[in-house]
Amino acid sequence: MPRGKGPASAARTGRPSGKASPTGGRTVRTTGTCPQVISGGLLQIFGIGVLIVGDSGLGKSESALELVSRGHLFVSDDVVAVRLAPDGTLIGRAPAISRDFMEIRGLGIINIRQIFGPKAVCNQTRIDLIVQLKKWQRGFEYDRLGLEFSGDFDILGVRVPRQIVPVAPGRNIATLIEVASKVHLLREKGYHASRDIVKKLNRALL
After folding, report:
1. Using one digit for the tens of pLDDT, what is the confidence trace for 147-203?
2. Positive or negative: CA dihedral 58, 77, 88, 190
3. Burial 9-20 (b: 16+ CB within 10 A, else e)
4. What is the reported pTM?
5. Which of 140, 133, 22, 137 is nearest to 82 (CA)?
């Protein structure tokens, strides 16, 4: 959803903190129990909370809509209010004014709850992974092995794993976000496919 448009834009409040945010834009300094507001979409995919960020026009909302149609849970579009739980985890939810709503270019504002039913919507979720969409740059050397994630992001003092997904014509972004979520789950269990194949190659060379 473009910044400054749609029902969620009215929910952005606060002053810039001066710290880097996953979106490359502003973050909001928090005091007490006030949430930090981040530009992006939030879904629960395979049981983990995935915050999708990136520049406007890369298909964040369209990818989120495709993921909801595949059975994943919708939390928020355009902006996410993030708070720090007592146990140290990050909890994200939609601002009240934009809850259940999503903006899709060409369709306008749609209501996810009304279209897909109440079981397609989750009021809030823990944030476990950030997927950052970036426009594909010709000549840029992208990671082809995936030995590590693209570097963590700090949100309210909590480091969150981040995966950069280059966006180019013909790439199925929704599927790549699903796979990134599965990769995160496997890494949490201690399995790294890239390290596995490196070990096999090393054994083959001995």
Report:
1. 665 678 889 999 999 998 888 888 899 999 999 999 999 988 887 777 676 677 777
2. negative
3. bebbeeeeeeee
4. 0.78
5. 22
